[in-house]
Amino acid sequence: MDDRSPEHPDVRTITLQQILEALVDPVRRSIVTQLWEAGTDIRCGGFDLPVSKSTLTHHCRVLREAGLIRQYYAGTARMNALRREEVDEAFPGLLDALIRADRAVRREPVPGGR
Amino acid sequence: MDDRSPEHPDVRTITLQQILEALVDPVRRSIVTQLWEAGTDIRCGGFDLPVSKSTLTHHCRVLREAGLIRQYYAGTARMNALRREEVDEAFPGLLDALIRADRAVRREPVPGGR
User: Fold this and answer.
1) What pTM was estimated for this model as a whole?
2) Where do the DSSP E strands lie in chain B?
3) Fewest CB atoms within 10 Å of the CB: A35, A49, A87, B76?
4) Which of A17, A23, A94 is nearest residue B97 as measured by Cβ atoms?
5) Whole-angstrom Cα distance, residue B89 to residue B108?
């Protein structure tokens, strides 16, 4: 992590409204679910998503500003980390329930799903 | 309940996308939270909300179509019931976590909060 890291909201200022506005988007839910499933940080470009690089950058910024992910540089790669423990501290059980629901949906052969 | 009851989606067709689109709106979250806290059905007009009757009708329809509430007539009153067990069956823990988060937010003196 170096001084190119963007700003992140303190966990105490995270709002439910921002979290829901972030996760109402299926691409952003997928980013969060992929981070949860990987159990490790993922570089931008490492997500399995059918969107352009600039669209992904936008979605990651929304997630960062909502307090859901932390972004930092490792060399030239911008990395993304799920702020799971911090979000769970603010809203107990919420992120896990949302990810569980999202994973259940993705396991089903829904039209338009992955 | 009589034949004026509107249509309701089967619990098996409820989608996470619709639930989140319904509950991203703070007025609709408040309706669901008030039903949860009351522990009983509430007639339209019985909610503590600073919105017009037609706006409330709209919000209740969105909640009904998302599968979150059941609407029925009792005499001339249109009643609203939370489909808590059914939603919990579809997405375990999700509704409770969302309501818990919503209640935590409302307990705090947030500008614009109740």
Assistant:
1) 0.88
2) 42-43, 69-74, 77-82
3) B76
4) A94
5) 30
Position B99, amino acid: I
Q: Is this prediction's ipTM beyond 0.85?
A: yes
Q: By three-state DSSP, how is residue A58 classified?
A: helix
DSSP-assigned beta bridge partners for residue B79:
B43, B72
B75 at the A interface (CB within 8 A)? Answer: no
Exposed/middle/buried for residue A39 (C-beta within 10 Å: 0-12, 13-18, 19+): exposed
Helix (H), strand (E) at residue A98: helix A94-107
Looking up tokens 């619990």 gives B11
CA A72, CA A62: separation in Å to the nearest integer?
A: 15
Q: Scanning every residue of chain A, which has its alpha carbon at the shortest distance from the alpha carbon of B21?
A: A24
Nearest of A41, A26, A22 to residue A102 by alpha carbon = A26
What tens digit of pLDDT does each residue of B57-109 get?
A: 999 999 999 999 999 999 999 999 999 999 999 999 999 999 999 999 877 65
**Is residue B1 predicted with pLDDT exceeding 60?**
no
Work out the minimum CA distance from B92 to partner chain A, whole angstroms.
Answer: 7
Number of H helices, E strands in chain A: 5, 3
CA distance B62 to B18: 9
